[in-house]
Amino acid sequence: MTKLSEGAIEALSNGTGGNDAVLQLVNIRKIDGGSGLPRFRVMMSDGVHTLSSFMLSTQLNFMAEENRLAPNCVCILKKHVTNILKDKRRVVIILEIEIIKSAEDVAGRIGEPTPYTEGQGKGLQSAPNPENRPPLQQQNRNEGECRVLF
């Protein structure tokens, strides 16, 4: 059985995740933006948590359109950039991804992941008071810039 990078979803959600995380694709959905190329929203799992805040870069649309990226396939997130939207949500843009096990070769969902909610991995610690928080900054060390328009 393929080993996923447990804890990677929490790290990516917080903007501290690095590259080469092994994740399972749970769901992929085409989003028609009206103008320009379609976008694909992706839900990924690390075996512990799921996160639906992934977007496929348009250069990788062919992977979704040719059904290479399909539910249950296992991938290595090779390169990504994390963007912060106006409402402070984070979106992980997938710039490079490698499929290491196709959906046909995986016997379903790995682990029993639950949806990740910010602060969930911190145990019983209470969240800091919003007035005392430093402003959010992009913490991704990847090169390049990508903007998401909704």
TrEMBL record:
<dbReference type="GO" id="GO:0006260">
    <property type="term" value="P:DNA replication"/>
</dbReference>
<protein>
    <recommendedName>
        <fullName>Replication factor-A protein 1 N-terminal domain-containing protein</fullName>
    </recommendedName>
</protein>
<dbReference type="GO" id="GO:0003677">
    <property type="term" value="F:DNA binding"/>
</dbReference>
<dbReference type="InterPro" id="IPR007199">
    <property type="entry name" value="Rep_factor-A_N"/>
</dbReference>
<feature type="region of interest" description="Disordered">
    <location>
        <begin position="110"/>
        <end position="145"/>
    </location>
</feature>
<dbReference type="GO" id="GO:0005634">
    <property type="term" value="C:nucleus"/>
</dbReference>
<feature type="domain" description="Replication factor-A protein 1 N-terminal">
    <location>
        <begin position="4"/>
        <end position="102"/>
    </location>
</feature>
<dbReference type="Pfam" id="PF04057">
    <property type="entry name" value="Rep-A_N"/>
</dbReference>
<dbReference type="InterPro" id="IPR012340">
    <property type="entry name" value="NA-bd_OB-fold"/>
</dbReference>
